[in-house]
Amino acid sequence: MNITRDLYQMPDYSLPLATSTWDDAEYSALERVIQSGQFTMGSEVAAFETAFSKYHKTRYAVMVNSGSSANLLMIAALFFRKNNALRPGDEVIVPAVSWSTTYAPLQQYGLKVKFVDIDLYSLNVDLDQLEQAITSKTRLILMVNLLGNPNDFRRLEKIIEGRDVLVVEDNCESLGAELDGQKTGTFGLMGTYSSFFSHHISTMEGGVVTTNDRELYQIMLSLRAHGWTRDLPKRNDVTQIKSDDLFNESFKFVLPGYNLRPLELSGAVGVEQLKKLPKIVDGRRRNAVFFQSVMKDHSQLLIQRETGKSSWFGFSLVLRPDAAMTRDELRKGLSKLGFECRPIVAGNFTKNAVMKFFDAEVHGNLKNADHIHYHGLFVGNHHYNIEPALNLLRQL
Predict the structure, then answer these.
(1) What would the pLDDT profile of 66-92 be if each residue is shown by its tens digit?
(2) Which of 34, 41, 79, 85 has the alpha carbon at shortest distance from 63?
(3) Helix (H, G, I), strand (E, B), or coil: what is residue 34?
């Protein structure tokens, strides 16, 4: 039984957005944790963090209870650095298309958010617009690798060369993607990932932040668990030194933190899922090759143009500007063929009512974000062969 689909009473699609990647290994891991009686964050989470950082070739990984929490923790950490810390009112540039919790931490920490358009083909940030949007006030660029597709970080490096601008990544949809042999999520100062059910790997709920910066890592260790010192090493970059008095250090708070800790159950499952990740990504890429062969010259629809090696979270379908059909007609056609579909992430986020709470501006116009907002959607991709279903797209 697929609990997630039953819970939300989803129709029985022949190609749903997401399916399970679990087998006996994950259920055995859960049973091991249940038998241990240790459910709060411990050795299983630590093992997952070690495996995750090894996979990404980063020094550190911090697991949390969701990808949304990972974004919150990443942004929060930048405010508590000893040097070059962010401050309320600092300007951050973001693409106009992403998920809500890409943006929410920016508002919550009082940053000035500048939205720029996306590229209609890659669906990632329009680097021409981004370059024009950077000013002396820009302190941070938050890059989003959308639907598994890497950004062109080599060009971004040239754009910001010589500027005092920080770069971080929301890589929650793009686990396993690569550019020039380097995993996405590792090009910026920090990168975030999600392991929710619908993502490349699933730990039920879960997220991760990776970094090579020791100070930021230790700040996140404290912020993740109430802002206390308990999880810090004796000598650290947050308090410099921690006493050996376990009683006093157990409830000693030094940062305004949260409780974002994951469960041992999620950590144990994560270790098993990471073992499968290369095959999961390979399966998605094989499906993508077939999808591209079916759809690359479609008269009505545009598909996502790959940068580097995408991990193909899903397959976008965007109506061409001169298309004869409407998105509603496209959606109904897909439904008849058995495809579950959704808007492309949150579409143009600036069209949401929550924007009244943001200190924000738009650079130029968001014509491409508007276009995919009204004329785009995506269908699911999976780790197993879905070529028969994808072949049905020829009927659109």
Answers:
(1) 999 999 999 999 999 999 999 999 999
(2) 41
(3) helix
Judged against a pLDDT cut of 80, whether residue 226 lies above it is answered with yes
Q: Which domains does the chain show, CATH number per domain?
A: 22-270 (3.40.640.10), 276-395 (3.90.1150.10)
Per-residue model confidence as pLDDT tens digits over 317-351: 999 999 999 999 999 999 999 999 999 999 999 99
Check 199, 200, 363, 373 and give the catalytic one.
199
Residues 6+ apart with CB under 8 A from 317: 295, 301, 302, 303, 330, 334, 341, 376, 377, 378, 379
315: phi then psi, degrees, rounded to nearest 5: -120, 115
Q: Can you read off the two tokens belonging to residue 92?
A: 């951050």
Residue 191: count other Cβ atoms within 10 Å of its Cβ: 28
Alpha helices in 84-213 (DSSP H): 100-108, 127-133, 153-160
CA angle, residues 293, 297, 302, in degrees to nearest 5: 100
Query: Tokens 């209870």 map to which residue?
Result: 65
pLDDT at position 10 is 43
CA pair distance 50, 292, nearest whole angstrom: 36
User: What average pLDDT does range 172-179 have in this prediction?
Assistant: 98
| Residues 62 and 221 sit within 8 Å (Cβ to Cβ) | yes
The answer to whether residues 56 and 238 touch, using CB atoms and an 8 Å cutoff, is no
373 in catalytic set: no
